[in-house]
Amino acid sequence: MAHTNQIIYNPENKQQIEFLQTAKDTNGAMLEMISTYGPFSTRPPSHYHPYQSEDFLVMEGELTVQLGRGIKTLKKGDAIHISQNEPHAMWNNGSEKAVINWKVQPALDTEYMFENACNIAIKNIHNKRKTTIIQKIMLARKYKNMFRLAKPSYSLQQIIFWLITPLTLKADFDRITYSD
């Protein structure tokens, strides 16, 4: 369970998140974080949030932002608002770390999505493997109210999730049954 001042780190995308205000702190209205992207962090897939908006303020370094088909670089002091359903992606394309104040409204279960993604990445790094497509699909399916890929269409994503359900159920069973 996320809490104020908790810090999590995802070694796969080189992103650290410090929770400043959690859903519990704001009665679900907002999740506020400090996100630190390591140099040349991984570019995430273009995605959108069907029920949430986001606000970003660059506090240090530079943040590369893809909005639709356009790409721009935000520098210290720059801010951007991302409306719900607006496809976007953000990463650090520079050689210095980027530190961002990041607010998500409403919070929903976003902090748990980040915790789960980080835990999967840490476990996989420990086991010397990358996060599998099945693990990513399981996360996307579980947190579909907070995160959806911009492509393929959400309808097609639902069909794909349905088709691979037997594989994800086996992955769940394997994770529960066997320990490392």
UniProtKB/TrEMBL annotation:
It comes from the Bacteria. InterPro entries: Cupin_2, QDO-like, RmlC-like_jellyroll, RmlC_Cupin_sf. Residues 39-100 form the Cupin type-2 domain. It holds the Pfam family Cupin_2. This is Cupin domain-containing protein. The lineage of its organism: Bacteria, Pseudomonadati, Bacteroidota, Chitinophagia, Chitinophagales.
